[in-house]
Design goal:
263 residues; alpha/beta
């Protein structure tokens, strides 16, 4: 897919909870982007901050894209203050997206925190393009407040289960506990995950133990977004032995066994 640098206009922006922003961008040139791909946003025309920020796509529409942005520092705080009408400099779509399940194959989407964003994009794509695929979303957050900031964007057509670390919403524990303790999953279901590395490692092990194919989207700090700077490399494994992969260019979506091989 062709990578483009272009301008996108903000048509809607609003906070959801204390530290999350939902942003709708008019960018018809991104309408062919796939679930799991991302964009690099330029925050400021000057040099502070200098580097662009990688943001996963939460939705792709004929008129543009939607984003869920977690406010983590000065860069994302500046983004949260952009008004409607602001023009954003974007490079994208970047990276490799999720491999969709075959028609009729159930999909289990496992997300931790803001990792729900690319899985929402996948869920929406499946609703439109694989209506015969059942979609189950397992979503984990620290607290009910964190959960409530993101759940409204999950398609209502998906079966949803929630886990919070403090038990203030849904089941208390980690999101992978929902699979470990209630593993009633169709044998041919595909697992998809995005979230913190410990969560993804746990998901990969569960998928291996139950012989489910599993694809995970990695989160990483990135400088270029196109694989040139090698700043986002992570260890990976092949039949030939250990290697390194670039999250931005080789991913961000990988087969889980490439990142977390079977013990």
């Amino acid at each position: 897919m062709h990578i483009t640098q272009g301008s996108a206009r903000i048509v809607q922006t609003a906070r959801s909870g204390a530290d999350t922003v939902h942003m709708v961008l008019e960018a018809p040139w991104l309408q062919q982007a796939l679930p799991g791909q991302f964009i690099m946003l330029r925050i400021y025309a000057g040099t502070a901050p200098l580097l662009r920020r990688p943001i996963s796509l939460c939705a792709v529409t004929p008129s543009g894209i939607e984003l869920l942005i977690k406010i983590r520092g000065s860069g994302t705080e500046r983004m949260a203050g952009w008004p409607v009408g602001h023009a954003v400099d974007i490079i994208g779509p970047l990276g490799n997206g999720f491999a969709p399940p075959p028609p009729g194959t159930p999909a289990v989407l496992v997300a931790g925190g803001i990792g729900i964003a690319p899985l929402i994009c996948l869920a929406r794509w499946l609703k439109d393009n694989r209506p015969d695929c059942s979609v189950r979303i397992l979503f984990g957050a620290r607290t009910a407040a964190d959960c409530d900031a993101l759940v409204p964007f999950i398609p209502a057509s998906c079966a949803l289960q929630i886990a919070t670390e403090d038990g203030s919403r849904g089941t208390q524990g980690s999101v992978t506990d929902l699979l470990a303790y209630k593993p009633a999953v169709c044998p041919d279901a595909l697992f998809y995950g995005c979230g913190p590395m410990p969560m993804l490692k746990s998901l990969a092990r569960l998928a291996c133990d139950t012989s489910h194919a599993c694809f995970i989207s990695l989160e990483a700090h990135m400088a270029c977004g196109v694989g040139a700077c090698l700043g986002c490399t992570v260890p990976a494994y092949t039949p030939q032995g250990p290697s390194q992969v670039r999250v931005c260019a080789d991913g961000p979506v990988f087969e889980a066994r490439r990142i977390f091989p079977a013990p």
